[in-house]
């Protein structure tokens, strides 16, 4: 997933931001492994997608999957 973010030409410094994304999302996943309720909602695929999108948007990414849609 971070490879898609890394290649997003619409985001300045995409490679660096993609690395930050990978670190932040990995931390979220580790938190969820330790405590599945750590982010409030029941752990499901929708929560994982929402958390992923939240981190991507915080870093300036809009739609890293646009090229494959």
Q: Just name the CATH architecture.
A: Up-down Bundle
Determine the fraction of residues in helical runs and give it as a percent range. Answer: 55-70%
Order of helices and strands: HHH
Q: Overall 3D geometry?
A: elongated
Write down how many β-strands occur, each being a DSSP E stretch of 2 or more residues.
Answer: 0
What distance lies between the first and last C-alpha atoms, to the nearest angstrom? Answer: 15 Å
Count of separate DSSP helical elements: 3
Q: What Rg, in angstroms, do the CA atoms define?
A: 13 Å
Strand content: under 5%
Instruction: Supply the CATH superfamily name.
Output: AF1104-like
CATH structural fold name: AF1104-like
What is the structural class?
A: mainly alpha
CATH class: Mainly Alpha
User: Kindly state the mean pLDDT as a whole number?
Assistant: 86
Largest sheet: none
**Unreliable residue runs:** none
How many structural domains? 1
Protein name: Pantothenate kinase 4
Keywords: Kinase, Transferase
GO molecular function: kinase activity
Organism: Trifolium pratense
């Amino acid at each position: 997933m971070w490879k898609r973010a890394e290649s997003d030409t619409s985001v300045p410094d995409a490679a660096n931001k993609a690395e930050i994304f990978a670190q932040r999302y990995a931390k979220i996943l580790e938190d969820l492994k330790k405590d599945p309720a750590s982010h409030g909602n029941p752990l499901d695929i929708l929560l994982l997608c929402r958390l992923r999108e939240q981190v991507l948007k915080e870093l300036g990414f809009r739609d890293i999957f646009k090229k494959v849609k």
